[in-house]
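Batch queue: ligand-bound targets. Current item pairs a single chain with zinc ion. No template structures supplied; prediction is de novo from sequence plus SMILES. Inputs echoed for audit trail.
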Amino acid sequence: MDVSSFKPFLKCEAAGLAQFKKQWEPQPPKSGPNLLIFGNFIHSYFQSEKAHQEYITKDSKTRKEIFKYGKPEKGFKKDYVAGGLADSMIKTLAGDEVFNSVYMPGDKEVIVTGKLGNHLWKGKIDSLSLDRGLFCDLKTVDKIHKKHWIEGQNYPTNFIVERGYVMQIALYQELIYQTFGKWLQPFIFAVSKQDPPDHDLFDFDTNSIREMMEENIETIKANQERVFNLIAGKEQPIRCEQCAYCRKSKQITHSIHITDIELD
Ligand SMILES: [Zn+2]
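Prediction returned. Tokens below.
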């Protein structure tokens, strides 16, 4: 199991399972670049020249997103052209001394594996520096300082908490320990899609964050059995009846008393 397949199950089991089985995927944003390809374009740039060239030409979907008419000889599309959004985000990071001394020396895209309870997990570390005792994850984000709202919580939170990155980083720290026998300090580099891009470095170095990370590992342990059973078809997923997947696949089964309409 990996954290990006697991997280959707915690929001809605039915949607998580449909996503896992590749029967459904969340709507991409109506405008702007494909998030996954855009993020990988930037990640692979800092991995190596070779990895970058291989990534941007790897298949027709990727080529179509990046190049005019899907053909490298026709040149980059607007988000990827020199001076465009991806290029200015890359230049922002490449021009930063801390990024160059903390992120760049690490081994890139390192696969780590391990066990939580009885289940096997894996992760991919963007930049791993075993000798210096740290690892980094690189995130692209609309706006670093944007307020995010979590259901059931009446105060805003930041993109790292909202997107479940605390769980990802806690898991990676554990898997690195199980793979290499070392407990490393995590960091997130974030670069924004603003013009000009914002960028910053975030650490997880307080007691309250460490507690939050431990809680996230416990959340994985408490929910993984159920998720594996859903995937194996041994148990049936619960529909939240409110998310995009549930709305799209909804059939009315009975009427609801008007006094029982659930409110957000
Ligand atoms: Zn749902």
